[in-house]
Design goal:
Length: 189
């Protein structure tokens, strides 16, 4: 966990709507933590939202083994950090068991499938997700995500808190580079 040694969660902020979050930063520079996986990933469901017209939307990325392993390490680090700092974050001491029960990982697993990484994207505004083609030029969001592979730029944003019984980690996707799908191979050759 040495790579996370400088990471820290700020004190909890409460929005005007009552949402609670603690921003994550690289403790040495106080900058947001950014991560760019090397692997190309797929987007099995496209960008979705519970309600029409929502600015913050969901994007699930099919994990490569290395991305899944990285976020498993983050989950382990975060659970330990929350146990150690629970009084500051939750105003009460939590045990490791309570933290494990309440923590909602951004990794989502379903039997027989590689893990999905749940991320958030902003559909509009100053921090709207940007799309790029393979040459580095701005592009439009695909009309169909079928067979689209992407490279992503992620911001490891914050710990969201609904209560000590329910909290998790927000990962925001700020940029998507759209890669041309590989030509299908003829199954008869």
């Amino acid at each position: 966990m040495a790579q996370f040694a400088s990471w820290e969660l700020a004190d909890v902020l409460v929005s005007s709507r009552g949402a609670k979050q603690a921003l994550l930063s690289d403790g040495s520079s106080k900058a947001p933590v950014r991560y760019k996986p090397e692997d190309a990933l797929t987007v099995p469901f496209g960008i979705t939202a519970w309600e029409e017209g929502t600015v913050r939307k969901n994007l699930e990325l099919r994990c490569s083994p290395s991305l899944e392993a990285f976020f498993e390490q983050i989950d382990e680090w975060l659970r330990g950090y929350v146990v150690e700092h629970s009084e500051r974050l939750f105003k009460k001491k939590l045990t490791a068991e309570q933290v494990s029960e309440g923590y909602k990982s951004p990794l989502h697993r379903k039997s027989g499938y590689p893990a999905l990484l749940r991320t958030k994207v902003n559909a509009s505004g100053r921090n709207a997700v940007r799309f790029w083609d393979e040459q580095g030029n701005r592009a439009e969001e695909p009309t169909s995500w079928k067979d689209v592979e992407v490279k992503v730029s992620l911001t490891l944003k914050s710990l969201w808190i609904q209560s000590p019984a329910s909290f998790g980690f927000t990962v925001e996707c700020s940029d998507l580079q759209l890669l041309a799908p590989a030509a299908p191979a003829c199954p008869f050759i």
